[in-house]
Specification:
The structure is a homotrimer. Chain A is mainly α. Chain A contains 13 helices and two strands, in the order ααααβααααααααβα. At the B-C interface, helix 12 and helix 13 of B face helix 5 and helix 6 of C.
């Protein structure tokens, strides 16, 4: 739910609208969009509840980190499909924007709001610092893996190095996928304890009745699909609204749509923080970012050679790579000690606001 | 005392001198300046003592971190006023140089010398690592908030984006000020314990007689005002001397004047380290940097729209932003474990020397 | 053994070959080279064993960190001599490539493989986190010290600032050498405990007989010289092979030759990890990087003014400095908690692969 591939479906006509009938139709649309928006928002709130409950039930058996992983996987799966559709339609810039937007929204906004709201209820909240460290180093690897092809496409003339860039992108994608598979082996097989929740949350599991594993997984899949469908509608509404409000395409893609599209998943992370289950909060927010950077992105690169009209390359602008690097560095420093409080949430949200401001004012033509 | 706004008052005629009568008058001036310099240096040493004692007396009641905060506030208050005067006179480059110079001098030089001299007396010195982590993440946020407008003014043609830059700068300033106010709430209200000194230093408080809070605060205010006045004289002398010695304006602004102007405050940090009160040392040095970046800088941005001939923007060169980022990263790694020794001081001083060398040799015209 | 100065001796004719008889002779050479390569590889494996045993014997008396330091010193000493020869011949680019290649190979590949193979035998391996932190901050300082002159030579016209650059380079070299000497004082004199191994490894020392200190040091020196000689042959072979395989000079210098040339030393680090002596592993891998950056590099800069046809400056491209910064940041996050496992090895190796891919595809002419 956290990235914004749905734009891929809705956007072309919008951006077309924008150029041809800029103004007139825009002023009518938002009101309809806002109307549409209200329904899914209420539904989202209810269904996030279902996702949270299903995740908790699974986590009873698998541990918090694995529960978070499942949550992230079912959350990202529908978007992967939508991104495929977008790739096929050749909307490469939108896919790129949705990737970077989803990562930023997860590690700064979702985690920040979860820290803030969790910290307003509990003075200090503890979680496993070793897990946070693994997440931080995974994200740094992701930044390197995005920075390299981005620097390439910025510095070198395209005609001369097209073959090189293709090989570089494929090579990077394979390296990242192998690292991601080994990360799953590490997390699920050899070192599940490294991600174990502190304390164990035994008492809380008695809250509701035990669900069967089948029912829990089924609920998670069903609710995730529903949330994906809702976020599609929401994202369409968000896009129209954003355009009508005069936001740039960059801002809509990286910030506005990422927030709206990722609302359901962010909600799960926040609800868990309010229940003082920080390991699951971190598993959802950071685990989802890692999945996008180290699984979704390379899969899209590789798939683009088969389904897209032109290869999809991980070439981002300076602003995107810089924002990602700073987000990851601050995330590492803020979350590295295994203890959160409300002000850490404020810090993460502050950085998100600064980055959002930057993208808001970034002129579209002269984008570096 | 730690930033160099006094140049604002003294500099115009110097830089004017520099261009018109370069050479002749310069050779006479320094000798007079050096004469002037000797008086305030001795006074500074004495008054730093008073500042330290007043801070200690306040800290007896408020804790080390709050004591450090008060020390930093009274240390920065006079400069804020002087910076206002400089803004009004349109000396934007000088204000910028003094901001960046003060931050670098605090987190690298003052802390480095304090670690070094403290470490020569005590083998290992402990302080609260959670507090150091908060300071580090605040500084990273400050770096992001300076990097964004700096990248903007470097990459975009000014004529097209002037309105955008104005909004961006105002937006950033508001975000930073809100974050700073919440930081004070966090530090003083909700989590004073997070900044509490390790151990408690109960024994040392018995060193002198207890002052009344009024006397302690009064002494701090008085001594700070005196130190500010002295640092003004010193900075004027330093500037003349630097120019006479052929230093570039960049080096004088960012390095030479920052060291001289921040001497009194640095002295407080060092004296505390020699007394093994590292939490206060860190509170003074890092707290002061945070205050400059997250309070003084945004206030100046907002104020410039009312008092300055042109808006003051936080647009620094690559060298400044790069130096700041590296300083903050090294500061985070070096100070993150809550234990200092003399060699950590050497490391911080080394980085300061490298950065100072860079600014010394930076050609003025082709500055990136 | 870990950097690739031997290219200096073998390379000129190769690169000459490359330009004149590109193709024909190249196709014959590799087969001979591969033949040559087999002998030293087997010898290397045997002698690494001798180096390891000698280092262990010394460490019995001096502690693991000092053992690692000695290992690194004897490993780097022969290359320093070879680099002198290369400087004298004016092969500055090769010396630069070998420096950066050796650092990257040590902190990413050698440490990564050691973590991976050590972690496959032992579930979790502990080492002294304070020592890892010192190494990390030293490496950050090294990055700053390389980034500054690199930025200089990139941004400024050479004719105008040649005198400036000379002074900057000499100044930096002196600062780094002083920092390195003080680092030795810190490590060997005032805080040997900060680098002490966790636990003490008393049991393992009984493995073999105790050697006399003279025999241990003698073996280390002898084996190191032998390994240096072998790595010269190996590097020559590697260079020819790399050129024949169509690798760019950048890739050969920074990646291929660095791996081959550093094989013996990397082997020591890996063997120690398999014996669960992680403090020595880290001492060898990171200690060697620090020595190259803070001792070998500045010594070469200073020496170049006496022996080289033109001054040797620490001016690297963006790709090199960027790679180094990311390597050090990831190294700091991954190794900072004093506990390793196989997946941390995978992470470091992944970053090395990404960087190697970058250099592989970097076009030579348009190198930024």
């Amino acid at each position: 739910m956290n990235d914004a591939k749905p734009i891929a479906v809705a956007a072309p006509q919008h951006s077309h609208f924008l150029k041809t009938t800029k103004g007139i139709s825009m002023r009518i649309k938002p009101s309809i969009n806002w109307l549409f928006a209200f329904i899914p928002v209420t539904l989202a709130l209810e269904h996030a509840g279902l996702i949270v409950r299903a995740t908790e039930q699974i986590a009873t058996r698998t541990g918090d980190a694995v529960g978070g992983l499942l949550n992230a996987t079912f959350g990202n799966a529908p978007e992967l499909i939508i991104a495929f559709v977008a790739l096929k339609a050749g909307l490469l810039d939108m896919v790129r924007a949705s990737l970077i937007g989803a990562i930023l929204a997860n590690i700064l906004l979702a985690l920040g709001v979860a820290f803030l709201l969790g910290g307003l209820r509990y003075r200090d909240q503890d979680y496993n610092p070793a897990a946070a460290r693994v997440y931080s180093s995974m994200m740094l690897i992701a930044v390197v893996s995005l920075a390299v092809p981005s620097a390439f496409s910025r510095f070198f003339a395209p005609e001369e190095t097209i073959r090189q860039e293709t090989l570089l992108n494929v090579g990077l994608a394979v390296v990242l996928l192998v690292a991601y598979v080994l990360y799953l082996v590490f997390m699920l097989k050899t070192h599940p304890g490294a991600f174990a929740a502190k304390g164990g949350h035994v008492g809380e599991e008695a809250e509701g009745k035990h669900w069967s594993l089948r029912r829990a997984v089924g609920s998670l899949v069903g609710a995730s699909l529903l949330a994906a469908w809702m976020s599609e509608i929401l994202v369409g509404a968000a896009e129209g609204t954003g355009t009508a409000l005069g936001m740039s395409q960059v801002f809509i893609g990286i910030v506005f749509v990422a927030i709206v599209g990722g609302a359901a998943e962010s909600l799960s992370a926040i609800v868990m923080a309010r229940k003082n289950r920080m390991d699951m909060t971190i598993g959802i927010a950071l685990g989802s970012s890692i999945q996008i950077a180290l699984f979704v992105a390379p899969v899209l690169v590789l798939a683009s050679y088969f389904i897209a009209p032109q290869p999809f390359e991980l070439s981002f602008g300076r602003a995107e790579v810089g924002a990602l690097l700073m987000a990851v560095l601050i995330g590492a420093v803020v979350s590295g000690d295994g203890r959160s409080n409300w002000y850490k949430g404020v810090q993460l949200i502050t950085v998100y606001l600064i980055i959002a401001l930057m993208f808001y004012f970034l002129p579209e033509a002269t984008r570096p």
